[in-house]
Design goal:
single chain; about 230 residues; alpha+beta; Immunoglobulin-like; 2 domains; 8 helices; about 40% helix; elongated
Length: about 230
């Protein structure tokens, strides 16, 4: 018995060192320590006192369990800080009529100039959405389209050329978004007439998703752009 006790005492520093590496290990040490102290101090006490000590001991254990759980919960502040935090802005948009005659009467092109940055954990952009929201009407989802090598956007006064190298999708699809903003263009086609999209009361809502599926949105009123 003495030999086993001496071996336990010799290994006690290693046991404490290993247990301290995890919250559950620390919790186990606390339980063992409190149990030993309770036994030494209250072993000759009456049943009522021992029951009271047991209830107090149980309450301390439950408190420690709850504290450990909340600290290591996936929704705790420390873990939230490890998630991406994408930030999005729209700087402008070109609303144009497609050149192809077979879609000109059905669709209107919207080339969005936007930028995105990230103040959280690394993440690529996994998805882009655009909703056109006319006044007193339901949102209309626009279709994201790959930007060709070169595309001329014809307007009533002048025209603009956008290129595949400007694609914000391509810039953020495989390269994680960092704190430095990434700028580029997004090409969408909406099943709406051009004049309805350009109405001052129409809103554009741009959405980007991170690797966890969380969405970041930004909204722009067309009238604000038209009055710049």
């Amino acid at each position: 018995m003495d030999i086993s006790l001496n071996k336990l005492i010799d290994k006690l520093p290693n046991i404490i060192s290993e247990a301290s590496k995890s919250p559950l290990g620390i919790f186990s040490l606390i339980i063992i320590s409190l149990a030993i102290l309770a036994f030494l101090f209250f072993r000759h006490s009456s049943s009522g006192i021992r029951v009271s000590v047991f209830i107090l001991f149980l309450g301390v254990c439950l408190f420690v369990i709850v504290s450990i759980h909340s600290t290591h919960s996936p929704y705790s502040e420390s873990n939230q800080a490890q998630r991406p935090n994408l930030m999005l802005a729209m700087m402008g948009a070109n609303v144009f009529s497609p050149g192809a005659e077979d879609v000109r009467d059905r669709l209107t092109g919207i080339a969005i100039e936007a930028k995105v940055c990230n103040t959280g954990a690394p993440s690529v952009a996994t998805g882009w959405l655009l909703f056109v929201i006319p006044e007193n009407a339901l949102p209309v989802a626009a279709q994201l389209t790959k930007i060709p090598e070169s595309l001329r956007l014809e307007g009533p006064i002048n025209s603009t050329i956008i290129r595949a190298s400007e694609s914000l999708v391509a810039k953020t699809k495989t390269t994680p978004v960092q704190t430095t903003p990434v700028e580029g263009r997004l090409l969408f086609y909406a099943p709406m007439k051009r004049e309805n999209i350009l109405a001052p009361t129409t809103r554009l809502e741009l959405v980007v998703r991170d690797i966890y599926g969380s969405e970041t949105k930004t909204t722009q009123l067309m009238g604000d752009w038209l009055h710049r």
